[in-house]
Amino acid sequence: MVAGPLIGAQLAEFGADVVKIENADGRGDSFRMTGTRVVIEKENGATETMASNWHNVNRGKRSLTLDLKSERGKAIFLQLAAAADVFLQNFRPGVAEKPGIGYDDLSALNPELIYLSSSGFGESGPSSEQRVYD
Description:
The protein is of the alpha/beta class. 28% of the residues lie in helices and 19% in strands. The chain has a two-stranded parallel ribbon with strand order 1-4.
């Protein structure tokens, strides 16, 4: 839950243009509400409560909300992946394959793409399917 976002923040600090893709379910990244919360004032004067840890691991990134289950959202995602140098995903093994964004899918689209997969207990083994939050 933290490894992928932290890796992305470090890449941004090294000068990479990092685009974070979030769920289009109205909640975005669940890490937004985990831990100590701070009040953020938006440009329109509205306020939002968000976890300070989320800001820490998402510093330096641009963010885009996409529904990968929709044709339009998936098309936008694939357009970004086709032009990307690096793709980083932080799902449990097998989760990225369901919407068609696994290694085989994206490397066929962009053979030069570096595909980084970070999971808590590795790609295989007795604990590989467990969720990790620490």
